[in-house]
Every structure is written in structure tokens, then in C-alpha cells.
């Protein structure tokens, strides 16, 4: 509350009395008696002044009263707002208190989750270590078991070869097949036609094994060739069947690890007189010169020999060396899926949309959208491998809807 001080200023009215000049001295004679009416006029003037002063005070008091009411109204509004603010502040303090309690609980739970996570990670690492140790033990036991079986049976099978061969088309095949197998008549599906190009022999090097054979070299062995638009390189020319075949893959005893990288499968690896893979770049350089036949020769652990021949087309590096085959003859049903784009892939390289076949089956090979039909570049397993996963990682082929056949040796070759 504000104290309002009112100051009243009283202005004295000087009433001038009429003094007779003759009364200036006490010694002068007494004047005439004053007029009553003159006294009444002075009273009226004084009353009028007091009345005006009263009206002024009334107006001032009325105005001051209104201002005081406004101040009180504003004070009431301020008090109400302050009260509401105090209530809201209390509510916020309560909410803050609850939030702190909740935060403390969450922190405790978070610590518990972290501790559980650390424990789970530790247990998982321990389980993985135990799994790895068990896998090593199982593999060691499997190898020991295989060695014992081989020792007990006295297995001394000759190291016959699985191979892939290439040969140009149009060369007359000998009347007797090089393998003890019965040929089939060519399928009605026409072979794939390639754009044939002329061989350009530079530095007097033959373009392929057919050119080597036509020069009079009829002995199987390592020769240097120089395909068109390519540098010279060595190949193994196989002439045992009476016609020239270019050997592009050879498996016989497991001396060479075929679980190689994409780069090595492009360039080639191994020894031409032993186990080897010629190299996708070299195979592509050869087959781009003319029409070639692809031949697969297989021997299982019962010494049964099989073969199949295809007309085929091989794509370049940009297509992941896509292989497209059409069977001509042979006695291996379903060795390679026909009329299907088979893309080459390894454990460190796969084509878009392809499965991770090499991770599960080892080696590098031509697969499509499924795994498991065949793999001639898998791990070289001994016979009677008990582990099914290990069998699938080995060299094998599987006819449609039939069991898996483990392969002892293989050849892949080609000729014009």
C-alpha cells in the first residue's frame, strides 16, 4: 500500500479594511461608525473562495481514488499471476524430480545391459574359439581316418587325371575314343556359333595347339603359342587321342591348392607338367580365334572314366567370363547346366546376383544362381570322406536328382 499525503495549502485572504485617514493618530478624533454591508461583502468573498477550494479538493480526491483503484486492480492481477506461476513452478519441480529418478533408474539399467553385453561377447568369443578348435580337431581326425582307410585297403590307384581340354571344331576325331566310355549322338540343339577370326602368327609362334599339331609336332608336351591380339605363353598340348587338345585344367593328386583368388584364376597357377589352371585370360585369348570344343574328362575313385564335350561361348573379363554351353557328346548327364549363363566366381569375387558358392564349396568355378551341381576346382579330398560338408568342398559332380560323385582326377581341355 502506498501512503498518499495530501498537502492543503491555505491561502489567507487579506481583507483590506477601510481605514479612515483621519484615524491615523490616537490623538485624532473618533471616525464615523463602519458600514454593515461592507462587512457582508467580505464574508461572501471568503465563502466563495472556500467553496472553490472545496470543489478543487473534491475533484482531486475523486481522481486520486480512481488511480488508487487502478493500482489495486493491477496489484490483484499481479498477485494472481505470481500465484499461478508459483503453482507451475512447483509442478515443474515435481516433474524434474520424477525425471531425475527415472534417469537414475535408466542409468542403472544401462549399466546392467552393458555388463550383460560384455558377458555375452565374452561367452560368444569363447564359443567361437571352441568351435574353431573343434573344427581343427574334426579335420585332423578325418585326415587320420582317411589315411588309416587308405593304409588298410592298400590303395595304390594310379594318378589318372581329371582335365578340361579345348579343341577347334572341324577336326576329325579318331574312331576309338581315348576313354573307355560310350559316346552319345550329338543333341538336336545346334552348337553355339562364334565369330571366327584368322590366326595372326607373329615371331613364328603357333596360335594354338592345332597349329602346333599341323607343324608336325605330334608329341604331347609344353609348347609356346601366341593367340591373336595376345602375348605368347606356354600351354600343354595333349595329342594322345590322335588330335590336338589344349589342356586348360588338370587335377590328379592334390599337390596344387585350387582355393585361389580371382586374380590368380585370371592369370593361371600351378605347373603345366603337374596340376594347374591355365588362366581365364589365356583361355579367352585362345577361344576368341575360332570355334572350339570344350571337353571334360573325369575319373572317380572306382576308376570309372567319364567324359562330355560341349560347343561353347566364353565371355570376357567384363562379363565375369560367362560360360554358355551346349552338349555334343558324352556320358556324364548334367555335368554343366546347358543354355544357362554360368558366371565364374571365387571366394573373393562374385558377380552381382550370384550366390557365395566358393565360400561354401571352395575353389573357383562357373556357377549360376544355385550351387552344388559340380565343382572340378574344389578341395582334393581322399576317398570315403565321412563329413558331408567336406565332401561338398571337394572335387565332385552331381547329376540332376542324383547323389554326389567324388572325383579322383579331372581334365578340362579344348580344341578347334
UniProtKB/TrEMBL annotation:
Residues 200-416 form the Fibrinogen C-terminal domain. GO terms for cellular component: cell surface; extracellular space; lamellipodium. One of its GO terms (biological process) is negative regulation of very-low-density lipoprotein particle remodeling. It is found in: Cell projection, Lamellipodium; Secreted. Residues 159-203 are annotated as: Disordered. Residues 172-183 have a biased composition (Polar residues). SMART domains: FBG. Residues 92-151 form a coiled coil. Residues 1-16 form the signal peptide. Gene3D superfamilies: Gamma Fibrinogen, chain A, domain 1 (3.90.215.10), Gamma-fibrinogen Carboxyl Terminal Fragment, domain 2 (4.10.530.10). It comes from the Eukaryota. GO terms for molecular function: heparin binding; phospholipase inhibitor activity. Keywords: Angiogenesis, Cell adhesion, Cell projection, Coiled coil, Disulfide bond, Glycoprotein, Heparin-binding, Lipid metabolism, Secreted, Signal. It holds the Pfam family Fibrinogen_C. Interacts with ANGPTL8. Interacts with ITGB3. This is Angiopoietin-related protein 3. It comes from Mus spicilegus (Mound-building mouse).
Amino acid at each position: 500500500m502506498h501512503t498518499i499525503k495530501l498537502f492543503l495549502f491555505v491561502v489567507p485572504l487579506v481583507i483590506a479594511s477601510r481605514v479612515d485617514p483621519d484615524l491615523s493618530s490616537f490623538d485624532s478624533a473618533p471616525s464615523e461608525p463602519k458600514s454593515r454591508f461592507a462587512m457582508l461583502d467580505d464574508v461572501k468573498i471568503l465563502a466563495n473562495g472556500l467553496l472553490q477550494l472545496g470543489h478543487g479538493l473534491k475533484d482531486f480526491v475523486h481522481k486520486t481514488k480512481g488511480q488508487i483503484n487502478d493500482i489495486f486492480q493491477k496489484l490483484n492481477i499481479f498477485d494472481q499471476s505470481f500465484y499461478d506461476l508459483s503453482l507451475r513452478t512447483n509442478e515443474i519441480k515435481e516433474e524434474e524430480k520424477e525425471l531425475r529418478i527415472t534417469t537414475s533408474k535408466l542409468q542403472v539399467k544401462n549399466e546392467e545391459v552393458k555388463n550383460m553385453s560384455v558377458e555375452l561377447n565374452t561367452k560368444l568369443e569363447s564359443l567361437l574359439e571352441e568351435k574353431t578348435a573343434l573344427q581343427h580337431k574334426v579335420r585332423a581326425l578325418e585326415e587320420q581316418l582317411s589315411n588309416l582307410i587308405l593304409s588298410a585297403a592298400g590303395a595304390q590307384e594310379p594318378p589318372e587325371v581329371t582335365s578340361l581340354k579345348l579343341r577347334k571344331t572341324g577336326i576329325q576325331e579318331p574312331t576309338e575314343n581315348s576313354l573307355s566310355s560310350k559316346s552319345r549322338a550329338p543333341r538336336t540343339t545346334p552348337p553355339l556359333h562364334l565369330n571366327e577370326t584368322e590366326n595372326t602368327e607373329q615371331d613364328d609362334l603357333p596360335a594354338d595347339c592345332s597349329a602346333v599339331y599341323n607343324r608336325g609336332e605330334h608329341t604331347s608336351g609344353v609348347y609356346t603359342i601366341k593367340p591373336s591380339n595376345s602375348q605368347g605363353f606356354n600351354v600343354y598340348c595333349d595329342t594322345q587321342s590322335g588330335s590336338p587338345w589344349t589342356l586348360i585344367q588338370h587335377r590328379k593328386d592334390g599337390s596344387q591348392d585350387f582355393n585361389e583368388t580371382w586374380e590368380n584364376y585370371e592369370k593361371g597357377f600351378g605347373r603345366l607338367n603337374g596340376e594347374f589352371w591355365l588362366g581365364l585370360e589365356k583361355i579367352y585369348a585362345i577361344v576368341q580365334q575360332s570355334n572350339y570344343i570344350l571337353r571334360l574328362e573325369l575319373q572317380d575313385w572306382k576308376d570309372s572314366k567319364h567324359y562330355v564335350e560341349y560347343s561353347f561361348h566364353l565371355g570376357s573379363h567384363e562379363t565375369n567370363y560367362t560360360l554358355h554351353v551346349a552338349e555334343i557328346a558324352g556320358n556324364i548327364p548334367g555335368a554343366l547346366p546347358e543354355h544357362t549363363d554360368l558366371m565364374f566366381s571365387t571366394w573373393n569375387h562374385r558377380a552381382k546376383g550370384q550366390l557365395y558358392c566358393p565360400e561354401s564349396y571352395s575353389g573357383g568355378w562357373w556357377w549360376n544362381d544355385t550351387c552344388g551341381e559340380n565343382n572340378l576346382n574344389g578341395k582334393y579330398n581322399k576317398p570315403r570322406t565321412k563329413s558331408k560338408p567336406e565332401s561338398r568342398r571337394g572335387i565332385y559332380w552331381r547329376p540332376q536328382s542324383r547323389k554326389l560323385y567324388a572325383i579322383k582326377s579331372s581334365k578340362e581341355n579344348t580344341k578347334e
